[in-house]
């Protein structure tokens, strides 16, 4: 059965998880690139071994897992190190995404990825949905959620495709700057349309 794939994207803190949680409640399977990005650096993985070889053992916590806060501080302050990490992890993440998409069973499947357009993952998708908020809200919501500084979030935003470019590439745009309930009401309308599109493809 051919699969109808919705690419869901948005910058850090825009609301991808809030959106995909709701779609999951509708019975839609979610393939989440951020979740996969953690799986490919689990203890014992090739990914983690290469990171420890490159950055040194001090990049590991006492239990042998990756010190994510330390790696985040390094890569978003040093573009060359970020490129090195992206070159290592993005092919591994892409392979796992393809595998997860191939196994999906729901009416349609969502590929949620912050770097969907940056990594041209939209080419795997039938349709794309951008969850969008102004940068000030990305900063406010991410600092509150993660307990990180505005400067750290600004560095991450600077490493992502500018909002206007993403808006130009997306098929649909979901404004999440108001109350979440309003966003989810609009999402429900989009979801009905996606069910129809997926059905028509069969
Ligand atoms: C640097 C790491 C260890 C920091 O981990 P941490 O737990 O603090 O953050 P988390 O993984 O939850 O990511 C939070 C957000 O940061 C942004 N982000 C993460 N990696 C990148 C990147 N390479 N470039 C731009 N933005 C990124 C995304 O918006 C993401 O949703 C981690 O983000 C990582 O391994 N990044 C490289 C893999 C990657 O590109 N992941 C993005 C999904 S493809
Ligand atoms: N409409 C909204 N109003 C207020 N808070 C919101 C709204 N939407 C999401 N949030 C909150 O903002 C934060 C960021 O949302 P979410 O985690 O869904 O973003 P994300 O795009 O998945 O982020 P990341 O790229 O970092 O994984 C969360 O704490 C979430 O509860």
From TrEMBL:
Enzyme Commission number(s): 2.7.1.24
One MF term in the entry's GO annotations: dephospho-CoA kinase activity
Pathway: Cofactor biosynthesis; coenzyme A biosynthesis; CoA from (R)-pantothenate: step 5/5
Keywords: ATP-binding, Coenzyme A biosynthesis, Cytoplasm, Kinase, Nucleotide-binding, Transferase
Chain sites annotated for binding ATP: 13-18
CDD domains, A to Z: DPCK
Main localization category: cytoplasm
InterPro entries (UniProt xref): Depp_CoAkinase, P-loop_NTPase
Reactions catalysed according to its record: 3'-dephospho-CoA + ATP = ADP + CoA + H(+)
Localization: Cytoplasm
Top EC group: transferase
Alphabetized Pfam families for the sequence: CoaE
Assigned protein family: Belongs to the CoaE family.
Task of the protein: Catalyzes the phosphorylation of the 3'-hydroxyl group of dephosphocoenzyme A to form coenzyme A.
Alphabetized NCBIfam families for the sequence: dephospho-CoA kinase (TIGR00152)
UniProt name for this protein: Dephospho-CoA kinase
Organism: Pseudoalteromonas fenneropenaei
Gene transcribed to yield this protein: coaE
């Amino acid at each position: 059965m051919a699969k109808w794939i919705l690419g869901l994207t948005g910058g850090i803190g825009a609301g991808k998880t809030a959106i995909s949680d709701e779609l999951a409640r509708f019975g839609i399977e979610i393939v989440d690139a951020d979740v996969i990005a953690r799986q490919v650096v689990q203890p014992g993985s090739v990914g983690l071994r290469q990171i420890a070889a490159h950055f040194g053992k001090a990049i590991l916590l006492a239990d042998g897992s990756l010190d994510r806060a330390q790696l985040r501080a390094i890569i978003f302050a040093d573009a060359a190190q970020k490129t090195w990490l992206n070159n290592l992890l993005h092919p591994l993440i892409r392979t796992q995404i393809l595998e997860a998409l191939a196994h999906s069973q729901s009416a349609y499947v969502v590929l949620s990825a912050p770097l969907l357009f940056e990594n041209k993952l939209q080419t795997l998708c039938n349709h794309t949905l951008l969850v969008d908020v102004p940068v000030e809200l990305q900063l406010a919501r991410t600092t509150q959620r993660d307990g990180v500084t505005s400067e750290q979030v600004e560095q991450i935003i600077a490493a992502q495709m500018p909002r206007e470019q993403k808006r130009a590439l997306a098929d649909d745009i979901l404004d999440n700057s108001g109350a979440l309930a309003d966003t989810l009401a609009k999402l429900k309308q989009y979801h009905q349309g996606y069910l129809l599109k997926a059905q028509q493809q069969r």
